[in-house]
Amino acid sequence: MTEHSFKAACVQLRTGQDMQANIADAVSLIRKAAGEGADYVLTPEQTSLMELKPKALFSQVRTEDNDLALPAFRALAAELGVWLHIGSLAIRLSDDKAANRSFLIAPDGTIAARYDKVHMFDVDLAGGESYRESQTYQAGDEAVVAELPWGKLGLSICYDLRFPHLYRTLSHAGAHFLTVPAAFTRQTGQAHWHTLLRARAIENGAFVLAAAQGGTHENGRETYGHSLIISPWGDVLAEAYTDPGVIIAEIDVSAVEHARGRIPSLSHDRPFALVKAEAPEARSAS
User: Pairing relation of β-strands 122-124 and 111-116?
Assistant: First the structure.
């Protein structure tokens, strides 16, 4: 029988380049969230390591079977009895490629779902800030919906946020909650973070849970922070700022049905053809 409400927490981090220290920081805040009554806890993208240089990254990352962080988080979920959603870990696939992989861990410590980030952040920003995620990471090719006791969870990671068709697909597959663990840059976060997250919630009538990295990191990167929990009607239920910490909100699953009943756009989706109109000069020439 599906339960109708639960407490969801987003953990905000400022991950550095020392994996053991990062794991300890995350564990401390996950414990805090559980201590405040959270049933489900989400951490940001790159929970265990914030490293942009490939050589330094591959000196620390391992395969999933040998990863240092995953066993610690699995044991923690079992100890605390919570659904623990690790926003992403870098998982070695080969000598020069990793997966940016999210893990949903059940309260017994088993892995309930995995998701590899589909869209790679290959951009050049103002001020010389540049990223080429595809040089280091291999893109995933599967959308993932997982079952929770309270409903269905749709998984995504960071840059995926800019591709609304992914969230439409997850929502048509029954997702009540859309997750966006992220390490948004300060530049792009200031411009678009709140707007995009609220849009994904409103257009799909779903809760959006977005745990973020925040502040100036050890490697000099600046991330935006502002972890958010947003209702299906687009209301901000909880928000962090820049520093590491925890936000919690009560999630009433009936709000999904209510929002989708008021604006039933999911049921109004229709297939359509694309027609390219002729330019005026082409029409006159004929």
Answer: unpaired
Residue 117 annotated as catalytic: yes
Question: Total domain count for the chain?
Answer: 1
Inter-CA distances, 157 with 114, 145, 180, 264, Å: 12, 13, 5, 26
Is 32 a residue of the active site?
A: no
How confident is the model over 204-227, as pLDDT tens digits?
999 999 999 999 999 888 999 999
Residue 105 sits in a domain whose CATH number is 3.60.110.10
Instruction: Kindly name the residue from 10, 51, 152, 158 that is annotated as catalytic.
Output: 158
Contact 214, 226 (CB under 8 A): yes
Q: Hey, is 218 helix, strand or coil?
A: coil
List 10, 51, 117, 152, catalytic entry: 117
**Is 45 one of the catalytic residues?**
yes
- Interval 116-133: pLDDT, tens: 999 988 778 777 777 788
> Which residues span the domain enclosing 87?
5-285
Q: Count the neighbouring beta carbons within 10 Å of the beta carbon of residue 225.
A: 26
